[in-house]
Amino acid sequence: MDIPAEGSNIQIQSYKHNGSLHRIWAETKVLKATNHMVIGGNDRTLVTEADGRTWMTREPAICYFHSDLWFNIISMIRDDGIYHYCNLGSPFVYDREALKYIDYDLDIKVFPDMTFTLLDEDEYEHNRKLMGYPDVIDHILKKNVDKLVRWIRQGKGPFSADFIDIWYDRYLTYLS
């Protein structure tokens, strides 16, 4: 797999299980990239939905993608604290065009006090039947929801306050 260059801007593309494009983030600055992980930062980036609608993100965010985990984490830095939006999805691939993953509908929203809510279970069940998610994918995703909850409770990875501080500081160095 190709690795994006640190300091470069990449596009992030999410797809659905049936191969259809779901959402595109126009620009994310690569802060760290290895064969297994990409950490990026963005602020007020253009997002394009599958139906062509566009919107701009409202705050700086640190994005965490891993090639072995069935989730990714977007940590949004707001005035009242850090909110994490966790997408259950396939491990990422990077092919020089974009960082890509399959979005599997389930999400976990984590609030600044580290309480969290599992979202979109109805959408997941609907799409699981509609797109025929295999049982093995269903099993993997449910195991990764449990893993993600453990990470949240343990303050692991992006859920550590130091993680966001370090990577947001690095992001700011690219802006000056």
From TrEMBL:
<comment type="function">
    <text>Has nucleoside phosphatase activity towards nucleoside triphosphates and nucleoside diphosphates.</text>
</comment>
<feature type="binding site">
    <location>
        <position position="87"/>
    </location>
    <ligand>
        <name>Mg(2+) 1</name>
    </ligand>
</feature>
<feature type="binding site">
    <location>
        <position position="123"/>
    </location>
    <ligand>
        <name>Mg(2+) 2</name>
    </ligand>
</feature>
<keyword id="KW-0479">Metal-binding</keyword>
<feature type="binding site">
    <location>
        <position position="103"/>
    </location>
    <ligand>
        <name>Mg(2+) 1</name>
    </ligand>
</feature>
<keyword id="KW-0460">Magnesium</keyword>
<dbReference type="InterPro" id="IPR035930">
    <property type="entry name" value="FomD-like_sf"/>
</dbReference>
<dbReference type="Pfam" id="PF04167">
    <property type="entry name" value="DUF402"/>
</dbReference>
<protein>
    <recommendedName>
        <fullName>Nucleoside triphosphate/diphosphate phosphatase</fullName>
        <ecNumber>3.6.1.15</ecNumber>
        <ecNumber>3.6.1.6</ecNumber>
    </recommendedName>
</protein>
<feature type="domain" description="DUF402">
    <location>
        <begin position="18"/>
        <end position="156"/>
    </location>
</feature>
<feature type="active site" description="Proton donor">
    <location>
        <position position="23"/>
    </location>
</feature>
<comment type="similarity">
    <text>Belongs to the Ntdp family.</text>
</comment>
<dbReference type="InterPro" id="IPR007295">
    <property type="entry name" value="DUF402"/>
</dbReference>
<keyword id="KW-0378">Hydrolase</keyword>
<feature type="binding site">
    <location>
        <position position="107"/>
    </location>
    <ligand>
        <name>Mg(2+) 2</name>
    </ligand>
</feature>
<feature type="binding site">
    <location>
        <position position="120"/>
    </location>
    <ligand>
        <name>Mg(2+) 2</name>
    </ligand>
</feature>
<feature type="binding site">
    <location>
        <position position="105"/>
    </location>
    <ligand>
        <name>Mg(2+) 2</name>
    </ligand>
</feature>
<dbReference type="InterPro" id="IPR016882">
    <property type="entry name" value="SA1684"/>
</dbReference>
<dbReference type="InterPro" id="IPR050212">
    <property type="entry name" value="Ntdp-like"/>
</dbReference>
<feature type="binding site">
    <location>
        <position position="107"/>
    </location>
    <ligand>
        <name>Mg(2+) 1</name>
    </ligand>
</feature>
